[in-house]
Amino acid sequence: MNRRNILLTATAIAAAAPFVTRLTGVTPAQAQTANAALVSDTDRVLGDPEAPVTILEYSSLTCPHCASFHTQTLPQVKEEWIDTGKAKLVYRHFPLDRLALYAAMTASCLPTDRAYFAFLDVLFKTQDQWSRAQDPMGELAAMARTAGLGQEKFEACVADQDLADSILQQRLDGSQAFDIQATPTFVINGKKVSGALPYEDFAKTLSEVHEAS
Question: Other C-beta atoms within 10 Å of 113: how many?
Answer without folding.
Answer: 15
